[in-house]
Amino acid sequence: MIGLPVEDTDKSGGKSLADQLEEEASLEEKPMPRRHRADEENDVKSLDRAGERNLYLLVKKPRKANAWQFPQGGVEEEEALHQTALRELKEECGPNMDVWIVGRQPIGHYGYAYPKEAGLDTFENAKIYFFKGHILAGQCNPDGKEIVDFAWLTKQEIQKYVEPHYWEAVKDMLSDS
What we know:
The strands form three sheets. A three-stranded antiparallel sheet has the order 2-1-7, with helices on one face. Strands 3-6 form a two-stranded antiparallel ribbon. A two-stranded antiparallel ribbon has the order 4-5. Strand 1 and strand 2 form a beta hairpin. 23% of the residues lie in helices and 20% in strands. The model has no long low-confidence stretch (mean pLDDT 84). The chain is built from five helices and seven strands.
């Protein structure tokens, strides 16, 4: 804070201090709106959207049912779950993202029965563990085979992309902001 000595009135007949302060207040700079071109164009591939709201990465598998989901994959032998999360993210989204997996414990899980067409006779059910991650730099760059599309979405936008049963399983793990 800086204190400036001022006189209440200008001796030359100028504006009073109150008038000067009122004039300065009207000249105060207003903050720019937190809308980016990506917001205007609804570019869901851009991280430069939705202001300070959280964006979540969803990927699209090349199938009709359950196509949109968070990146996921199987655990390899001797691999910790948080290591699997990072490896699968790189496999599905390319090596161009610098990501920090927050913690070694999942924030939630989701279980489902494997569909018969999956051909996984040795397994009956799957359990998916979710980890929180922060992208520090880069962008998703899927190979177009295992993953055919991606989107950075707010919590509210995710519901429009995923199946109702998936939404019910993940919605409480996501921040509203």
